[in-house]
């Protein structure tokens, strides 16, 4: 069932489109929108007709076809074709732009988000001086089940936005884990006790954030049926996280790491600022979605930690 606020937002978008184009708002059109938003996956007009008729047998397939065209025009739905001759519709409003991997045998479809792919497409379009209007990228082949001639395994069926939100939580957790490991490694190598204590405290903060994220992820997967089994949507290169980490060797002298409390705080400030900047920039690649809000919230957590360390550093400098 679509959340009440999300339903209200999309109803307002749809009604505004109808008014602007001189079209009537009807109970049947609203029912079709509600049924579409309550559905998951890729729906044909025939699929949607069957679902709508369970609620009102008077709604005809022509009405559904025309309504879906209107929902596509106002940005609530997107038309897709999956190599089986049918036009299907998927949720579009406040969903990340994504692509599809399609099995030509069983027509199973996997959705994925890739900022790197989007950037590559943008560079190619700019190179040829095109103005992009829309694009579609789909990969066709045989899924593992079809190659092995075995029944398709049950897969989680969830809304793309919810999967994207889950994956954003996983990326944020990966950064917290990487930050915790970085601080612990630096503390273990550091020869200055006061500096090592600063780094260990920073690691403890990262560990608390990680625990919060893992609890949130577990709650989301428990409350949303099938979400834990849904394939990954947001494909993220973990090496991007390593680029955020400061180079400890640049702080070493004659191969030895000896950071006093002040220099340890400066190191932590560099990492927290980089992490916040990275995820703000990363979130900027996506439209307004649950996943984008997770990334922005994570960036703000890093800035909170940055401010906490900065205050401690300012107090230390003032005391000198």
In short:
The protein has 320 residues and is mainly alpha-helical. It contains eleven helices and six strands. The protein has helices spanning 4-20, 27-38, 45-53, 61-73, 115-127, 144-147, 160-189, 193-223, 239-242, 261-283, 290-319, and strands at 43-44, 77-81, 87-91, 99-103, 109-112, 138-141.
Instruction: Supply the number of structural domains.
Output: 2
Helix count from the secondary structure assignment: 11
Secondary structure tally: strands: 6
Name of the CATH homologous superfamily of the largest domain: Ferritin, core subunit, four-helix bundle
How do the strands of the widest beta sheet line up side by side? 1-3-2
* Poorly predicted spans: none
3D structure, described in words:
This protein is mainly alpha-helical. It has two domains: 1-93, Winged helix-like DNA-binding domain superfamily/Winged helix DNA-binding domain (Arc Repressor Mutant, subunit A); 160-319, Ferritin, core subunit, four-helix bundle (Ferritin), CATH 1.20.1260.10. Helix content is 58%, strand content 8%. The strands form two sheets. The protein has a three-stranded antiparallel beta sheet with strand order 1-3-2. A hairpin with a 5-residue loop joins strand 2 (77-81) and strand 3 (87-91).
What structural keywords apply?
320 residues; mainly alpha; Arc Repressor Mutant, subunit A; 2 domains; three-stranded antiparallel sheet; 11 helices; 6 strands; 58% helix; 8% strand
């Amino acid at each position: 069932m679509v959340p009440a606020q999300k339903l209200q937002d999309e109803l307002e978008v749809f009604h505004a489109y109808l008014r602007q184009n001189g079209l009537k708002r009807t109970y049947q059109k609203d029912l079709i929108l509600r049924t579409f938003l309550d559905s998951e996956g890729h729906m044909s007009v025939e699929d949607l007709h069957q679902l709508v008729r369970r609620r009102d047998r008077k709604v005809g397939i022509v009405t559904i076809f025309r309504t879906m065209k209107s929902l596509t025009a106002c940005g609530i739905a997107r038309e897709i074709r999956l190599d089986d001759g049918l036009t299907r519709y998927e949720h579009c409003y406040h969903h990340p732009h994504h692509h599809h991997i399609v099995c030509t045998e069983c027509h199973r479809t996997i959705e994925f988000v890739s900022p790197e792919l989007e950037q590559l497409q943008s560079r190619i379009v700019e190179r040829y001086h095109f103005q992009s209007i829309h694009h579609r990228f789909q990969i066709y082949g045989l899924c593992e089940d079809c190659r092995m001639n075995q029944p398709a395994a049950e897969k989680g069926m969830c809304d793309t936005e919810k999967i994207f939100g889950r994956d954003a939580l996983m990326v944020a957790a990966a950064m917290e884990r990487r930050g915790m490991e970085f601080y612990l490694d630096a503390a273990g190598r550091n020869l200055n006790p006061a500096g090592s204590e600063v780094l260990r405290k920073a690691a403890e903060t990262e560990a608390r954030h990680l625990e919060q994220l893992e609890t949130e992820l577990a709650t989301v997967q428990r409350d949303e049926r099938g979400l834990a089994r849904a394939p990954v949507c947001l494909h993220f290169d973990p090496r991007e996280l390593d680029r955020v980490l400061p180079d400890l060797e640049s702080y070493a002298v004659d191969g030895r790491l000896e950071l006093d409390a002040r220099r340890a705080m400066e190191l932590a400030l560099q990492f927290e600022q980089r992490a916040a900047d990275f995820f703000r920039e990363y979130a900027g690649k996506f439209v307004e979605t649950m996943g984008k809000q997770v990334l922005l919230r994570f960036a703000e957590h890093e800035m909170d930690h940055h401010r906490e360390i900065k205050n401690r550093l300012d107090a230390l400098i003032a005391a000198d």
